[in-house]
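pinned: reference chain
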Amino acid sequence: MKWLKRSAALIVVLVLIGWIGMSMDRTSRQIRDEEAELLRRRISEAAVLCYALEGSYPEDVSYLEENYGVVIDRSRYHVFYETFGSNMRPDIEVYRRGSGG
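pinned: its structure tokens
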């Protein structure tokens, strides 16, 4: 009988540990996704500011890094910045590295 109670308690503890681990992983993933979205917005805002001040969108994101204070941690994010012309808003996408897209 004691063995049965201990086994049941152990199973409950293991299930709780698994549930906590999955919750932490989900929360961590959500935070990283939100960080990527914040970076995308920051790049977009800097591009619009550049357009307002200089009359054209920059050809690449490095111009925003050099002149508008955009900081990109390239070890953590892939940034895709595609321009269609100096007067058309660029297409900006940010992905976490290792996220599969």
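why pinned: DSSP finds two helices and two strands in the chain. The radius of gyration is 23 Å.
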